[in-house]
Known about the structure:
Helix 3 runs antiparallel to helix 4. This protein is 41% helix and 18% strand. The chain starts with a strand and ends with a helix. It has a five-stranded antiparallel sheet with strand order 1-2-3-5-4. A three-stranded antiparallel sheet has the order 6-8-9, with helices on one face. Strands 7-10 form a two-stranded antiparallel sheet. By secondary structure, the protein is α+β, with helices and mostly antiparallel strands. The longest helix is centred in the C-terminal third of the chain and has 21 residues. It has a single domain, classed as Alpha-Beta Complex (Aminoglycoside 3'-phosphotransferase, Chain: A, domain 2). It contains eight helices and ten strands. Strand 4 and strand 5 form a beta hairpin.
Amino acid sequence: MDEVEVVVAHSERATLRVGDVFLKVDADQARIDAEIEAMSRVPVPTPQVLWHQPPVLAITALPGTTLGRLGGPSTGSPAGWAAAGAAIRKLHDAPLPPWRGRAGRSVAALAAELDDECASLVTNGVLPADLVTRNRRVAEAALRPWTAAFTHGDLQIAHVFVDGDEVTGIIDWSEAGQGDPLYDLATFTLGHEEHLGDVIAGYGADIDIDVIHAWWSLRSLLAVRWLSEHGFDPFAPGCEVDVLRSLM
């Protein structure tokens, strides 16, 4: 009998693996519905939905391996990173879904959230004031008008699988929807700046690097407290706090 592996678990959701099947448990039915709908629309490979019995979604495992992880070395080749960039471009060129995703928050709402989070980080002594202030200035470049694309919304490096130099699939679509395409590119390259050029080469478009840097700062500032409160360590080497320090 296959063992049950806890892939990730926190107060919002949990993912278990049993053999070649992943079981995603999420009390937010709208989030699961969005994930299923997104996977049915995107022009890139995704896991197959086996069954859905709220609050559980069962999906297949993907072949291949990820390109690496945040805080760890990249295991992928430059060609693999470029292939991921091409897959992301294919997603962004797809017809827009009718709903907004995580990357589609309004500039005003995002600015207000960022200001509140920065104030909390300083007031509670989570991060030094100069580190927060500098990265808040860097993040300003992300707060601009953008042309909506079909975005993944949480395109961490661990969510893209490759076999050699071919993308075999992308997982975790619960935050997908209309959004800023540079948010996806920044999320995917967070902590792996050395491969940003490879990704952009595969993506095949002119990219404003200042906006990518801005999203690195913004995403990291917004994530530090949540990660700490949900059992993750943003202070680990190569993770969010190191990203913020690198942008000083």
